[in-house]
Specification:
With 262 residues, the chain is an alpha+beta fold. It has 2 domains: 121 residues, Uncharacterised protein PF11572, DUF3234 (Trna Endonuclease, Chain: A, domain 1, 3-Layer(aba) Sandwich), CATH 3.40.1350.90; 102 residues, Macrophage Migration Inhibitory Factor. Helix content is 32%, strand content 25%. It has 8 helices and 13 strands. The strands form 3 sheets. Strands 1, 3, 4, 5, 6 and 7 form a 6-stranded mixed sheet that branches. Strands 8, 9, 10, 11 and 12 form a 5-stranded mixed sheet that branches. A two-stranded parallel ribbon has the order 2-13. Helix 1 runs antiparallel to helix 2, helix 2 packs across helix 4 and helix 6 packs antiparallel against helix 7. About 3% of the residues have low confidence.
């Protein structure tokens, strides 16, 4: 039996509970975060890619697979492809009126996602958290955070490899008396703040939690508050960035130079 992938398991959970919004959101989150293999009409030329488009019942679709072997099984031969995150593929298809065929006929997660749902995913991923200035005056152990949200944060932070070594979840009280919860990143990489705040925002959104339920802050290990965070906070360790592969980069592998549709 073929081993189930994270996308397979998220799809099964969604299919088992069709009225469960949380399960559906989790599937789309897994799709956005997963590396997907996009079937191309021809080999990529520089940063330009031309997906192979299929006209099926319900509209036009490009085909993506969460394993290279699954793409090969579908095609039955060697075929050109681009390795891209699901979120990047959704962005590429902006205003194209094209849906996604995911693992069609080769996996339990086989599904057609219409263009309207792809647009919704892109718009959801494009949301940015609001920036505010507030001074924490007291931190305490987190209380009342549901287990599903802790799991969602753990899963999402695992995708932030190399952006920070660790983060603490704490209860927080600010000047003025406002209270809530805060994720405090320690020694974030320069320029990584927006990406980390966005990752937390997505974890909340795709968990069905109201935006702003958890604040995000950034500190250095040398800051006085860091010792207090370590004493009372729930710690999440973030993986280190893996060593880059040698050789030329495939289309879509460099987030600073995303591919373009031809």
């Amino acid at each position: 039996m073929t081993e189930l992938t994270p996308l397979d398991m998220a799809h099964q959970a969604m299919e088992a509970a069709p009225e469960n919004d949380a399960a559906r959101l989790k599937f789309f989150e897994r799709l956005a975060d997963s590396e997907m293999f996009l079937l191309l009409a021809r080999e990529a030329e520089g940063d330009h890619v031309e997906p192979r488009v299929f006209d099926l019942e319900g509209g036009s679709f490009v085909l993506i697979f969460d394993r290279e072997a699954r793409l090969a099984e579908f095609v039955g031969d060697v075929a050109p492809f681009a390795a891209l995150s699901g979120r990047m593929i959704a962005t590429l298809l902006q205003d194209q009126g094209i849906g996604l065929g995911v693992n069609l006929g080769v996996a339990p997660s086989s599904i057609l996602i219409p263009a309207e749902a792809v647009d919704w995913l892109r718009q959801t991923l494009a949301q940015r958290p609001a920036e505010v200035v507030a001074q924490p005056v007291e931190v305490a152990p987190p209380a009342g955070v549901p287990d599903f949200l802790l799991q969602a944060l753990d899963t999402k932070l695992a995708t932030a490899a190399g952006l920070a070594p660790l983060v603490y979840l704490v209860g927080v009280t600010y000047e003025g008396g406002q209270a809530g919860h805060m994720l405090a990143f320690i020694d974030a990489a320069p320029g990584a703040e927006d990406a980390l705040a966005q990752a937390v925002g997505e974890a909340l959104t795709f968990s069905g939690v109201e935006a702003g339920a958890i604040d995000v802050a950034f500190f250095r290990a040398s800051d006085a508050i860091a010792a207090r965070l370590a004493r009372v906070g729930l710690r999440f360790d973030i993986p280190e960035l893996p060593e880059p592969a040698l050789g030329p980069s495939a289309p879509g592998m460099d987030p600073d130079a995303p591919p373009r549709l031809r």
